[in-house]
Amino acid sequence: MVHEAGPGFALPEGFLMGASTSAHQIEGNNVSSDWWTLENHPRSFIEEPSGDAADSFHRWPEDMDLLRELGFDSYRFSVEWARIEPQRGRISRAAVAHYRAMVRGAVERGLTPVVTLHHFTSPQWFSDLGGWTAPEAAGLFAAYARTCAEILREGVRYAATINEPNIMALMYALRAHAAEHGWDSVAQGARAAREAGAAAVDPASFEPDPEVVRALIRAHRAASAALRETVPGLRVGWTVANQVYQPEPGAEDIATAYAWPREDVFLEAAREDDWVGVQAYTRHRIGADGTLPPPRDAELTLTGWEFYPEALGEAVRHTAEVVGPGVPVLVTENGIATDDDSRRIAYTARALASLAEAMDAGIDVRGYLHWSALDNYEWGSYRPTFGLIAVDRHTFARTPKESARWLGGLSRERRLPAAAPLGSVPAPTSR
C-alpha cells in the first residue's frame, strides 16, 4: 500500500527529479563519431541523419535554464568521446573545457549533474579497431575515463560508464547476423541499428555473444576503477535497458533463459557498483515459442511499443532482486514516444505510481530522470517525440509542453502521484 503525504507519495530527502539526454541525440554535428559515419553513408539504411540535432552543443545553457525554471533539480547528459578524443591519443582541450563548463553550469543552477561517458556512440577510430571487442578496448576506455575525471571533478556525484551495454551487445549480434547475409559493413550496421529498436525482432535470434558481454564488463570495470582513483567520492555505475520479460503460463523457464544473456548478466555485473541505472519503457511477453506481439487491443506508441507504464515499477523490482541489497537504483530513463502530450502525462503518472509502490516496499531508489528533456534524434528519425520540451527543427526554439510543467510541479512539491491525474485523456479505442 502506497503511503501518502497529501495527494501522493512523499519523496525522501535527496531524491532527484529531472530529465535525461544524450550528446549525439541533441548536440548536433558529431562528425568524428561512428554514428555520424553510419548516418551519412550513401547506402545507409538510416532514414535521416542527425545533422544539427537540437543544437544543444551551443544551447545547453538555455536547456538547463528551462529545466530549472520548470522545477527540476537534476539533469542527466553525456560526454561525447568522439569530441574529447577525435583521433586516437589526441585530446581536444576545447571539448574538455566545454563539458567542464556544462557541469559547472548545472551545479550553478541547482541541477545535480548525472553524467554518462558513453551513450551508444564511439569515435570512428575506436570502431575501426573493432570497438569493444578490440584487445585494447578496456584500456582505451579507461584512459578516456581518466581524461573525463577532469570534467567530473567540477561537481558530479553520479557517473555512468556505459549506457545500456545490453543493447550494445545486441547490436553486435545483429551485425554478425547482417554479415551472414552479405551486407556491406556500413549498411549492415545501419540495418542492425534500425532493427534493434523494432518490436518485431525476436531476441531468440540475436543472443549476445558471451565474449562481447565479457568485453563490455571488462571495459566498465576498468573505467570504474580509473574514475574511483581520480575522482574522490564519485558514485560510479552503469545503466541497463530493462526488458520486463513477462512469461505466459508455462513459459517461466523460457523467460528466465531470455533474461540472463540480454539483461541479468549486466545487472549482476552491477553488484560491484555504487548504483545501477534502470531504463524501462514497456514490457515483453514471452510464450512457449518466444516473444509475443503486443495484445491486439493494446495502445501503441510512436516507436511501436505497447503503452505499459507499469513496466517501470516491475523493472525496479527485478533490478533490485538481481543486484541485491547495497546497490541503490537510479531511474535514468523512462518515457513515451507520443505526439499527444496528454498521453505522456497519463503514462508518466502511472509509471511514477508504480515506482512509488516499489519504493514503499523498501527498494532504495535515489531518483527519477525522465526521457527525454528535449524532442531529439532517435537513432535514425526525428519522428518519435519523447521530449518534455519541443524543439523547432529550423529555429531551434524550445517550447515546454504541459507534461514538463506537470512533472516539474511534482518535483517542486516533492511527491509522486499515487494514480493517474484526474482529467487524463482516455486511451484510444483502436490501434
Structural notes for this entry:
This protein is an alpha/beta fold and 431 residues long. The protein has one domain (9-416): TIM Barrel, CATH 3.20.20.80. It contains 14 helices and 15 strands. The strands form four sheets. The protein has an eight-stranded parallel β-barrel, surrounded by seven helices. A three-stranded mixed β-sheet has the order 7-9-10, with helices on one face. A two-stranded antiparallel sheet has the order 1-15. α12 runs parallel beside α13 (341-360).
Topology record:
Blueprint: E1 9-10, E2 16-20, H1 23-26, H2 34-40, H3 56-70, E3 74-78, H4 81-84, H5 93-108, E4 112-118, H6 124-129, H7 137-152, E5 158-163, H8 165-180, H9 185-196, H10 210-230, E6 235-241, E7 245-247, H11 252-269, E8 275-279, E9 284-287, E10 290-291, H12 311-323, E11 329-333, H13 341-360, E12 365-371, E13 389-391, E14 398-400, H14 402-413, E15 415-416
- Terminal CA distance reads 33 Å
Tell me the overall shape. Answer: globular
> Count of helical segments?
14
CATH architecture descriptor name: Alpha-Beta Barrel
CATH class: Alpha Beta
Total count of domains? 1
Order of strands across the main sheet: 2-3-4-5-6-8-11-12
Brief summary:
InterPro entries: GH (IPR017853), Glyco_hydro_1 (IPR001360). This protein is an alpha/beta fold and 431 residues long.
